[in-house]
Write a structure and sequence with these properties.
Layout lengths: L8 H13 L15 E5 L2 E4 L17 E5 L4 E4 L5 H14 L4 E5 L5 H4 L11 E5 L2 H25 L9 E3 L3 E4 L4 E6 L9 E5 L4 E9 L10 H11 L6 E6 L11 H19 L4 H7 L11 H16 L3
Length: 317
């Protein structure tokens, strides 16, 4: 469990030389050797995070991180949960291409998606996020850094810092990488109040960030009502593939959304019923949504928080 999922560029190049020296082995592109970074569509690469909470062993590698390579530049979409993981991701990019890293895009504010940003500072990219991301991330910066240092330990946390966006997205915006375009769409409050959807229009690949969880139980830090409404809208969208914030490297619409919709709808239904019955929050956290327990990893770590957030929102309907 302690072995890094991304290997360094130096290791990749050594492996490539060894392959080239052997007449019995066919040439393999460098990126194919880069552990768990996969090319899911032409020029679109995804690293799958683990279904775990942050720890020294996983170094914050608990969320999916991606990058898109255009003819002129690269865009990174989420950077994992520590600077050391961000460095590994950068090494994986450099094993694929030497094109400039022009954009680092964060789909929302949570540490497991943004603390790897620091690894890209020397590239001098434009850091991109929802127009509410800077305020939300700035307000929590101290608590995020303190909590994640405690979870990761000094070695795994080394170099991690909060980097705020330099480009705020308030309306649909297109970024150009040469021969391909990325469409960025800010969303109303759902998983958080700063969710951003990214689409690579060349391959019709939709990056949903934590608007989509699979296997890992969803976590509510925004509005359960808003999230359910958005999932209804997303169910009507077409895409060749979707990349979740947590889960497999790619999934298909609308099937990918169904477990998450069921989970959130179950919490909302149970909480509404208990509010109508005059139950307290403490009572609701013991039973609401527990029919979903066996369907998700990390249920015990996050589910009660979800019920608490839903109760606080729904009791004022």
């Amino acid at each position: 469990m302690c072995t890094p999922l991304l290997i360094s560029r130096k290791t990749v190049l050594r492996a490539g030389l060894a392959l080239a020296a052997s007449p019995l082995l066919r040439y393999v592109p460098a990126y194919a050797a880069a552990a768990d970074v996969s090319e899911v569509a032409p020029g679109v690469f995804v690293h799958q995070g683990r279904y775990e909470v942050q720890s020294p062993d996983n170094r914050g590698d608990v969320a999916n991180a991606s990058f898109v390579v255009g003819s002129e530049a690269v865009a990174v979409i989420d950077t994992s949960g520590s600077a050391v993981m961000g460095e590994d991701l950068r090494d994986a990019i450099r094993a694929v291409t030497n094109k400039p890293i022009k954009y680092v895009i964060n789909t929302h504010m949570h540490p497991d998606h943004v603390l790897g940003n620091a690894a890209f500072k020397t590239d001098n990219p434009t850091f991109v996020g929802h127009y509410k991301l800077a305020r939300a991330l700035g307000n929590r910066a101290g608590s995020y850094l303190t909590a994640n240092k405690q979870m990761l330990g000094d070695e795994a946390f080394a170099g991690s810092e909060i980097i705020l966006p330099t480009l705020a997205i308030k309306e649909p915006t297109t970024l150009f990488l040469g021969d391909r375009e990325l469409l960025l769409e800010p969303q109303a409050t759902a998983h958080t109040d700063n969710d951003l959807i990214v689409t690579d229009t060349k391959t019709d690949t939709l990056f949903l960030g934590d608007l989509l969880f699979s296997v890992h139980v969803p976590t509510i830090d925004g509005s359960i009502k808003g999230w359910l409404a958005l999932l209804d809208e997303l169910g009507n969208r077409k895409a060749a593939r979707v990349v979740p914030g947590h889960g497999p490297k790619t999934m298909e619409l609308p099937r990918a959304l169904e477990p998450e919709q069921r989970y959130l709808a179950t919490i909302a239904s149970d909480v509404r019923r208990q509010i109508a019955e005059g139950k307290t929050l403490a009572e609701a956290t013991k039973t609401a949504g527990f029919s979903e327990k066996d369907a998700w990893k990390l249920f015990d770590q996050y589910h009660v928080r979800n019920v608490t957030a839903a109760f606080a929102e729904l009791e004022w309907e």
